[in-house]
Design brief:
The protein is mainly α. The chain contains eleven helices and two strands. The chain has a two-stranded antiparallel ribbon with strand order 1-2. α3 packs parallel to α6, α4 runs antiparallel to α6 and α9 runs antiparallel to α10. The longest helix is centred in the last third of the chain and has 32 residues. The protein starts with a helix and ends in a 5-residue tail after the last helix.
Length: 260
Protein backbone atom coordinates (compact mmCIF):
# COMPACT_ATOMS: atom_id res chain seq x y z
CA UNK A 1 0.00 0.00 0.00
CA UNK A 2 1.09 3.54 -0.80
CA UNK A 3 0.75 4.86 2.76
CA UNK A 4 2.75 1.91 4.11
CA UNK A 5 5.62 2.90 1.84
CA UNK A 6 5.42 6.43 3.24
CA UNK A 7 5.54 5.03 6.78
CA UNK A 8 8.68 3.05 5.95
CA UNK A 9 10.36 6.18 4.60
CA UNK A 10 9.17 8.21 7.60
CA UNK A 11 10.86 5.75 9.96
CA UNK A 12 14.31 6.90 8.82
CA UNK A 13 17.21 7.92 11.04
CA UNK A 14 18.38 11.23 9.59
CA UNK A 15 18.67 14.33 11.82
CA UNK A 16 15.46 15.62 10.22
CA UNK A 17 13.62 12.39 11.08
CA UNK A 18 14.71 12.72 14.72
CA UNK A 19 13.33 16.24 15.11
CA UNK A 20 10.31 16.80 17.31
CA UNK A 21 7.19 16.47 15.10
CA UNK A 22 5.75 19.67 16.58
CA UNK A 23 8.77 21.60 15.36
CA UNK A 24 8.46 20.12 11.87
CA UNK A 25 4.72 20.81 11.78
CA UNK A 26 5.16 24.44 12.80
CA UNK A 27 8.02 24.94 10.33
CA UNK A 28 6.05 23.40 7.47
CA UNK A 29 2.98 25.54 8.12
CA UNK A 30 5.13 28.67 8.46
CA UNK A 31 6.84 27.88 5.15
CA UNK A 32 3.51 27.39 3.38
CA UNK A 33 2.35 30.75 4.76
CA UNK A 34 5.59 32.37 3.58
CA UNK A 35 5.09 31.03 0.07
CA UNK A 36 1.48 32.25 0.12
CA UNK A 37 2.35 35.88 0.91
CA UNK A 38 5.10 36.10 -1.67
CA UNK A 39 4.40 38.44 -4.59
CA UNK A 40 3.60 37.12 -8.04
CA UNK A 41 6.58 38.83 -9.60
CA UNK A 42 9.41 38.81 -10.09
CA UNK A 43 9.55 35.02 -10.04
CA UNK A 44 13.19 35.21 -8.92
CA UNK A 45 11.89 35.87 -5.38
CA UNK A 46 10.93 32.19 -5.19
CA UNK A 47 14.58 31.06 -5.47
CA UNK A 48 15.23 31.41 -1.73
CA UNK A 49 12.13 29.46 -0.58
CA UNK A 50 12.92 26.79 -3.19
CA UNK A 51 16.47 26.53 -1.86
CA UNK A 52 15.15 26.15 1.70
CA UNK A 53 12.78 23.30 0.87
CA UNK A 54 15.28 21.44 -1.32
CA UNK A 55 17.97 21.69 1.35
CA UNK A 56 15.45 20.27 3.82
CA UNK A 57 14.67 17.35 1.52
CA UNK A 58 18.37 16.72 0.93
CA UNK A 59 19.14 16.81 4.68
CA UNK A 60 16.41 14.24 5.29
CA UNK A 61 17.95 11.86 2.74
CA UNK A 62 14.60 11.24 1.07
CA UNK A 63 14.43 9.32 -2.23
CA UNK A 64 14.06 12.03 -4.85
CA UNK A 65 12.18 9.84 -7.28
CA UNK A 66 9.52 9.03 -4.72
CA UNK A 67 9.16 12.65 -3.57
CA UNK A 68 8.92 14.06 -7.08
CA UNK A 69 6.50 11.37 -8.24
CA UNK A 70 4.14 12.18 -5.36
CA UNK A 71 4.46 15.87 -6.13
CA UNK A 72 3.49 15.26 -9.75
CA UNK A 73 0.43 13.30 -8.58
CA UNK A 74 -0.94 16.35 -6.73
CA UNK A 75 0.21 18.99 -9.22
CA UNK A 76 -2.78 18.59 -11.63
CA UNK A 77 -5.08 20.00 -8.92
CA UNK A 78 -2.91 23.13 -8.77
CA UNK A 79 -2.77 23.28 -12.56
CA UNK A 80 -6.56 23.16 -12.70
CA UNK A 81 -6.68 26.42 -10.75
CA UNK A 82 -4.07 28.24 -12.85
CA UNK A 83 -4.44 26.89 -16.38
CA UNK A 84 -7.05 29.43 -17.55
CA UNK A 85 -5.37 32.53 -16.12
CA UNK A 86 -3.11 33.27 -19.13
CA UNK A 87 -6.22 33.53 -21.34
CA UNK A 88 -8.46 35.57 -19.04
CA UNK A 89 -6.30 37.96 -17.01
CA UNK A 90 -4.13 40.83 -18.18
CA UNK A 91 -3.76 43.55 -20.78
CA UNK A 92 -0.48 42.92 -22.62
CA UNK A 93 -0.88 40.26 -25.32
CA UNK A 94 2.19 38.07 -25.86
CA UNK A 95 0.67 35.48 -28.18
CA UNK A 96 -2.44 34.95 -30.26
CA UNK A 97 -3.55 31.37 -30.94
CA UNK A 98 -4.09 31.06 -34.67
CA UNK A 99 -7.41 32.28 -36.01
CA UNK A 100 -9.33 31.44 -32.82
CA UNK A 101 -8.94 34.95 -31.47
CA UNK A 102 -7.71 33.65 -28.12
CA UNK A 103 -4.95 35.73 -26.57
CA UNK A 104 -2.29 34.83 -24.01
CA UNK A 105 -1.63 37.74 -21.66
CA UNK A 106 1.69 38.41 -19.96
CA UNK A 107 0.11 39.24 -16.58
CA UNK A 108 -1.98 36.07 -16.60
CA UNK A 109 1.00 33.97 -17.62
CA UNK A 110 3.10 35.36 -14.78
CA UNK A 111 0.27 34.74 -12.30
CA UNK A 112 -0.13 31.18 -13.61
CA UNK A 113 3.58 30.45 -13.16
CA UNK A 114 3.57 32.01 -9.68
CA UNK A 115 0.63 29.82 -8.60
CA UNK A 116 2.32 26.71 -10.00
CA UNK A 117 5.57 27.51 -8.18
CA UNK A 118 3.67 28.22 -4.96
CA UNK A 119 1.81 24.94 -5.31
CA UNK A 120 4.98 22.93 -5.96
CA UNK A 121 6.81 24.45 -3.00
CA UNK A 122 3.85 23.97 -0.66
CA UNK A 123 3.45 20.34 -1.76
CA UNK A 124 7.17 19.70 -1.25
CA UNK A 125 7.03 21.30 2.21
CA UNK A 126 4.10 19.12 3.25
CA UNK A 127 5.86 16.13 1.73
CA UNK A 128 8.96 16.95 3.78
CA UNK A 129 6.79 16.83 6.89
CA UNK A 130 4.88 13.65 6.03
CA UNK A 131 7.86 11.73 4.65
CA UNK A 132 9.98 12.35 7.75
CA UNK A 133 7.35 11.88 10.50
CA UNK A 134 5.54 8.64 11.35
CA UNK A 135 1.82 9.27 11.15
CA UNK A 136 1.09 8.49 14.80
CA UNK A 137 3.70 11.01 15.94
CA UNK A 138 2.28 13.55 13.51
CA UNK A 139 -1.18 13.06 15.02
CA UNK A 140 0.30 13.45 18.49
CA UNK A 141 1.97 16.69 17.43
CA UNK A 142 -1.29 18.01 15.98
CA UNK A 143 -3.13 17.24 19.21
CA UNK A 144 -0.35 18.83 21.27
CA UNK A 145 -0.75 22.00 19.22
CA UNK A 146 -4.50 22.00 19.95
CA UNK A 147 -5.73 20.96 16.53
CA UNK A 148 -9.44 20.10 17.00
CA UNK A 149 -9.91 16.60 18.34
CA UNK A 150 -12.43 15.63 15.66
CA UNK A 151 -9.86 16.39 12.93
CA UNK A 152 -7.16 14.30 14.61
CA UNK A 153 -9.52 11.38 15.27
CA UNK A 154 -10.82 11.44 11.69
CA UNK A 155 -7.29 11.35 10.28
CA UNK A 156 -6.33 8.55 12.69
CA UNK A 157 -9.23 6.34 11.60
CA UNK A 158 -8.71 7.16 7.94
CA UNK A 159 -5.12 6.00 8.17
CA UNK A 160 -6.01 2.96 10.26
CA UNK A 161 -8.68 1.62 7.92
CA UNK A 162 -7.24 2.43 4.50
CA UNK A 163 -6.01 -1.16 4.19
CA UNK A 164 -9.42 -2.49 5.18
CA UNK A 165 -11.18 -0.27 2.64
CA UNK A 166 -8.75 -1.33 -0.10
CA UNK A 167 -9.33 -5.01 0.77
CA UNK A 168 -13.09 -4.53 0.68
CA UNK A 169 -12.82 -2.81 -2.70
CA UNK A 170 -10.76 -5.70 -4.04
CA UNK A 171 -13.35 -8.21 -2.87
CA UNK A 172 -16.19 -6.29 -4.55
CA UNK A 173 -14.25 -6.05 -7.84
CA UNK A 174 -13.39 -9.74 -7.66
CA UNK A 175 -17.04 -10.62 -7.16
CA UNK A 176 -18.00 -8.52 -10.19
CA UNK A 177 -15.35 -10.22 -12.33
CA UNK A 178 -16.58 -13.65 -11.22
CA UNK A 179 -20.13 -12.82 -12.30
CA UNK A 180 -19.11 -11.26 -15.65
CA UNK A 181 -15.65 -12.55 -16.61
CA UNK A 182 -16.05 -11.55 -20.26
CA UNK A 183 -17.69 -8.18 -19.68
CA UNK A 184 -16.71 -5.31 -21.97
CA UNK A 185 -15.09 -2.15 -20.73
CA UNK A 186 -18.34 -0.29 -21.31
CA UNK A 187 -20.23 -2.79 -19.15
CA UNK A 188 -17.63 -2.44 -16.41
CA UNK A 189 -17.96 1.33 -16.45
CA UNK A 190 -21.75 1.05 -16.23
CA UNK A 191 -21.48 -1.25 -13.24
CA UNK A 192 -18.99 0.97 -11.45
CA UNK A 193 -21.75 3.06 -9.90
CA UNK A 194 -23.28 0.00 -8.26
CA UNK A 195 -19.84 -1.14 -7.15
CA UNK A 196 -19.16 2.18 -5.43
CA UNK A 197 -22.61 2.08 -3.82
CA UNK A 198 -22.09 -1.42 -2.43
CA UNK A 199 -18.64 -0.45 -1.18
CA UNK A 200 -20.13 2.59 0.58
CA UNK A 201 -22.84 0.52 2.25
CA UNK A 202 -20.34 -2.06 3.45
CA UNK A 203 -18.06 0.68 4.76
CA UNK A 204 -20.94 2.29 6.68
CA UNK A 205 -21.98 -1.04 8.18
CA UNK A 206 -18.40 -1.82 9.18
CA UNK A 207 -17.92 1.66 10.63
CA UNK A 208 -21.06 1.29 12.76
CA UNK A 209 -19.88 -2.07 14.12
CA UNK A 210 -16.42 -0.70 14.89
CA UNK A 211 -17.85 2.36 16.61
CA UNK A 212 -20.12 0.24 18.82
CA UNK A 213 -17.22 -2.03 19.69
CA UNK A 214 -15.09 0.96 20.64
CA UNK A 215 -17.84 2.45 22.81
CA UNK A 216 -18.14 -0.85 24.66
CA UNK A 217 -14.41 -0.59 25.43
CA UNK A 218 -14.66 2.92 26.85
CA UNK A 219 -13.81 5.09 23.82
CA UNK A 220 -14.55 8.74 24.64
CA UNK A 221 -13.47 10.41 21.39
CA UNK A 222 -9.81 10.89 22.33
CA UNK A 223 -7.05 8.89 20.64
CA UNK A 224 -4.42 8.26 23.30
CA UNK A 225 -0.82 7.45 22.47
CA UNK A 226 1.67 6.30 25.08
CA UNK A 227 4.54 8.21 23.46
CA UNK A 228 5.36 11.56 25.06
CA UNK A 229 6.96 14.37 23.09
CA UNK A 230 9.84 16.28 24.60
CA UNK A 231 11.67 19.22 23.06
CA UNK A 232 15.45 18.85 22.93
CA UNK A 233 18.15 21.44 22.41
CA UNK A 234 18.56 20.36 18.79
CA UNK A 235 14.84 20.91 18.18
CA UNK A 236 14.97 24.43 19.57
CA UNK A 237 18.13 25.18 17.58
CA UNK A 238 16.51 23.98 14.35
CA UNK A 239 13.40 26.06 15.06
CA UNK A 240 15.53 29.16 15.73
CA UNK A 241 17.60 28.74 12.55
CA UNK A 242 14.49 28.08 10.45
CA UNK A 243 12.76 31.14 11.92
CA UNK A 244 15.76 33.30 11.09
CA UNK A 245 15.77 31.98 7.52
CA UNK A 246 12.09 32.79 7.07
CA UNK A 247 12.48 36.23 8.65
CA UNK A 248 15.50 36.95 6.47
CA UNK A 249 13.60 35.87 3.37
CA UNK A 250 10.69 38.17 4.21
CA UNK A 251 13.02 41.10 4.90
CA UNK A 252 14.92 40.50 1.66
CA UNK A 253 11.65 40.40 -0.22
CA UNK A 254 10.43 43.58 1.50
CA UNK A 255 13.54 45.62 0.77
CA UNK A 256 13.61 44.31 -2.80
CA UNK A 257 10.16 45.79 -3.34
CA UNK A 258 8.06 42.67 -2.94
CA UNK A 259 5.83 42.84 0.11
CA UNK A 260 4.93 46.39 0.96
Amino acid sequence: MHHRTIEQIAAGHSPIHRLDPRVKLVCSMAFVFLVTVFPNKPLAFFIVPAAIVFVGLFAAGLPWGFVLSRTVMVLPFVLLVAVFLPFTRGQEVVWTIGSTGMHVYREGLELCLAILIRGCLAILAIGWLVFTTPFQRLLLAMRSLHVPRVVVVTLAFLFRYLDLLADQSLRVRRARSARAPDGTRRLRWRSSGGLVGRLLLRALERADRIYRAMLSRGFDGEVRILTRLKLRTSDLLFLAVFSLLLAGTLLLNHFAGGIV
